[in-house]
Automatic annotation (TrEMBL):
Gene3D superfamilies listed in its UniProt record: HUPs
Organism name: Lactiplantibacillus plajomi
InterPro entries: Rossmann-like_a/b/a_fold, Universal_stress_UspA, UspA
Domain UspA: residue ranges: 1-145
Protein name in the entry: Universal stress protein
Signal peptide: none
Amino acid sequence: MFKNILVPLDGSKDSFKALAYAKEMAQMFSATLFVTTIIDPSVAIPAGVPPVGGIVPVQVELDVREEAAHVIDEAKKELAGTNIQVKYTIVSGTVNDEIATNLPEKEEIDLIVLGKSGKSALEKLIVGSVTKYVVQHAEVPVLVTEAASE
């Protein structure tokens, strides 16, 4: 039924709960997992750090990329020892568009699995709800996983 499953990770507990669901589904359907972390240049700059000449300071970009690589490494640990085919990517772009449309079109995704919420309540207020956007705009089925228990 599903051949290509997209799992966007932001490092939150909920995103890794989504990975656990996607792992089970990939095994059930012999599907390929597309595990990604998205770096959104418009929100990667911490408050109070002005871009220099419109360019994100180099150290900020390096820190964001290092965090993204760490998230991917954690996913690799979660999926180690399975026979699931996995493609790992770090993508730069607008989070909502990458998850809802760009990656599904590029990778022929037929299911998106994501957590109910992201890293923090503050980010949700500032950035808006990625989950809500994806559910409303994706042209493929979206599975929203329950919140991780604390």
